[in-house]
Structures are given as C-alpha cells and as structure tokens.
Fold:
Amino acid sequence: MSREYEAEQPEELRVVEQLLAAVAPVAPRLDRDRLMFLAGQASASASGRRLQASGRRGAPDGDDLPHGEDIGKLTHPARQLRRAWPVATAALAATSLALAIALFLRPQPTTRVEIVYRDRPAPAIAPERVAAAMPEKIESTDALPTARAFARRTRTEVLASNYLRTRDIALRLGLDALGTAPGGSGDGSVTAPTYRSLLEGLLSSGPRSTDPAASSASQM
Amino acid sequence: MADSISPELLGRLLDEQGGALALYAAQWTDQPDDCVQEALIELAGQRPVPDSPVAWLYRVVRNRAISRARSARRRERHESLAWRLEHRESETPAEMSVEPQQLAAALESLAADLREVVVARTWGGLGFEQIAELAGCSTSTAHRRYAAGLAALRERLMAPCQENTKPSSRKN
Structure:
C-alpha cells in the first residue's frame, strides 16, 4: 500500500521531497565509545536475564525505561552478589545489637525456695540388735545334743524376734502380749510373762492347767 | 531473526539514523541526543532483535522524548530545529537546494502531526505503514498528513524563491 501512495505523489510534491533530501540532519553529539560500552553492558545484562521469564517484548514505554545516567547503572548479577555481603553483615550486626540490648534490659532472676516432701523409707531392724540377741540364745543352746536341734532352736528364736511376727502378735493380741525386751532388766526381778512363755507353759501343763494367765491367753 | 544485535549493526544504525532520530526527538524534547543514546542501548539489550530495528528505534525515541517533555513541561518546549539540519555533502543543483535554517523554520511552523510524518518519512525512510503504527493512525491518514506537510512546506519554501525570482525576471 505504501508503494501505491508513493506512486500517487504529484510532481510538485516530488520537487519538495528533493529539496528536503538536499538537507541532512546533523549527527547526534554522542560519545561513540561510551555508547558501545553501555550497549555491551546492556547486552550482557539481557543475556543474564534471559533465563528469567520476561513478558516484555514489544517497544517499551518511555516511563518504564531508565533515563540518562541510570542506563550506566544497569543491574548486574556480580553487583547483586557484591551487595549481598554488606546486607548480610548489617543484618547480623543488627541482630547482635538487639540481643545485647535484650541481655542488659531483661529483669534479674528472683530466688525461689521450693519445698519438696519426700516419703521416708521404713526403718529396718538394726543388725546390732539382732547380733546382740543371737549370742545369748546360741549360748543357751550349747547344751543341745544335736546340730538339728540347734538349728531348729535358732530358727525359732530368730522367728520370735522377727519384726513381722512381733507386729502380728501386737495386732492380734495387743501390746501386752509382746512383753519386755530380752535383757531389759538385769537385776533378776520377776518380769511380766510373755505370750511365748505362756504358750509354752500351756503346752507343757496340758489341758488341765489352772494357770490364770494361760486361761486368759486362751481367751484372747 | 538474530538473537542479539551486533556491534557493527548498532554502529551502522547510529551513523545512518542517529541524526534523523535526534531530529525526530527534537520535536518534543530539548535532549534528543540522550533519547537516541538510550534507545540504542535499549536495542542492544533486546532479546530477540526486533524485526525492524529502525521502526523500533523511532518508536522508543518517540516514547522517551514525550516522556521527557512531560517531566520538563514547565521549561521551553524544545530547542530550535535549525542547528539540527545541514547541507548534504552530495552535490545538488543550486536550484534544488534550500538553506537549513529556512527549512528548519518551515518545519517548526508546521503542525506537530504533519511535521512528525514528514520527518519520519523524509529522513527516517520509514514506510507509511510504519509511520501509521508509530503515530497511531491509519496508513491513509499518515499519507494524507505527509502530503499536507509537503504542500505546506512547498508554500513556505517556494514562495520566497518565487518572490526573489520575480524581480530578476523583470530585470531581464
């Protein structure tokens, strides 16, 4: 269509065209070397951005483009990398400063007394007590004729001084049935009869016993 | 379609179209050289290279010049076109030559839409379709503006010549 328009130009206008063609515009005052350098820089930047999706392919608007000296400050990956280190350093410095301020401004820790109640373990039978009781019984059984009888007698005495057995007696028959501790009175005075002595006396006397203590024990 | 523009092509565009582009930008802004430089640099970063780099350059230069004119609205509109034109080095007959200052004055007296089409067509070498796309009008409108611009220039350029020739003819 342009050729049709060109063919339609009248002769008088062709003369004017020839007049205009005799005059040429002046070349722009540009630094050619600088222009080529900036163009190469822009081309390298475009190659770096090529992997990124860019929807702008047409002619850009004037408002979107950098002006004047901004052209020479085109963003380059190396510049961005160089800019990353100062940014990281500044971020770390700011974090350290914030932590230091928080350290100095935090409240002092208060002394807190906490009472913890713990269960106390049950006291076991003192080994000295057992050891103190054992030699008397063993001495008293020296007259036994055989080792079997000795062993049976020792076992019986040990069982008699057992805590559990004592507790059972106290629960079933009362505290009076326990009597006094062996060797409690060394003056040879008469002590209160124990449950054991009463029981042995009952067994030895037979069913016709008239001992009031044995009868009371049987009633219990 | 080339992947990137070569330095040789960029230099050739600068040599062949730099002046016309600056003249074209000078219609709107007083910093036409900066517009041309930015457009050439922008062209170097284009991927892929536009199909018609010359038409692309004119469009970018136009957008930039208008943008600069908006930012510098309070200042003088643009510099004079007079010093943007010079005699071509090629030999032309004396009767077919015109003084650059005279032509610049005639151009400045034209309406903006007519002047734009005349400059793009005469010194840019763009076709009417490209001019129509550039100016945002139809091809017939571009041609009509071009013809009207030439006619107006003819009136302004030829009239003094005729006036100058009339006394001499009387003398003869």
Strands of chain A lie at 23-25. The longest strand of chain A covers residues 23-25.
